[in-house]
Design a protein that fits this description.
The chain is an alpha/beta fold. It contains 5 helices and 14 strands.
């Protein structure tokens, strides 16, 4: 199996590629949309701001390619947030709109804990899905973020965590999935999520 890891200038590419390789798949570092044709799965990683991420995706021709692909897509951290319709980090910005919703700052939701949220937090599954198969409630994953994806439809929220306020941790709609946490940095449980993505391919 070949997995395109999108390189658009804002990503933790090395650890994601190593994790995919350890799971027995072949990571393809994709810096051109045409490379999606050779892939079975697509991963959109990311660190940084929503506005910067979308500007780079547009500049490098990824927006149309990601909106049109029917291959399974997994967004990680900022990559998950970019799946939304809009984001406010760096200014009000149109997102990929693959899963309707908006990305807002943690403090606007009433979070009074230290921001950014950095560390291990437990998952609670909201809607059973292949991406969280075999992940019991209470399993810890590693988070680093200051903004939160608020899907417009509750059924698109696969799992949540709590950080002073409820936080969307996993989203999914058809062939598009996302994790706010970093599965590649979340030990065995994170690798199980990645394995689920490789095996299932749909939410």
């Amino acid at each position: 199996m070949k997995v395109a890891v999108i390189d658009y200038g804002l990503g933790n590419l090395g650890s994601v590629r190593r994790a995919i390789a350890e799971l027995g798949a072949e990571p393809i570092l994709a810096d051109k949309p045409e490379q999606l044709a050779a892939a079975d799965r697509v991963i959109l990683p990311g660190v940084g701001s929503f506005a910067d991420g979308m500007a780079l995706l547009r500049e490098r021709g990824w927006v149309g390619a990601l909106r049109e692909t029917r291959k399974p897509v997994l967004g990680i951290c900022l990559g998950m947030q970019l799946l939304a319709s809009r984001g406010t980090e760096g200014g009000d910005t149109e997102g990929l709109d693959l899963i309707p919703g908006e990305v807002v700052a943690l403090e606007t939701l009433g979070c009074e804990l230290r921001i950014p949220h950095v560390g291990w937090n437990a998952l609670t599954v909201s809607h059973p899905s292949g991406i969280v198969r075999g992940i019991p409630d209470g399993t810890d994953f590693y988070f680093v973020h200051s903004f939160v994806f608020q899907p417009g439809e509750a059924t698109d929220v696969v799992a949540t965590t709590s950080y002073g306020v409820p936080v969307t941790a996993v989203v999914g709609r058809a062939n598009v999935m996302g994790t706010q946490f970093h599965p590649e940095k979340s030990s065995k449980a994170g690798f199980r999520v990645l394995r689920n993505f490789l095996d299932a391919g749909a939410c």
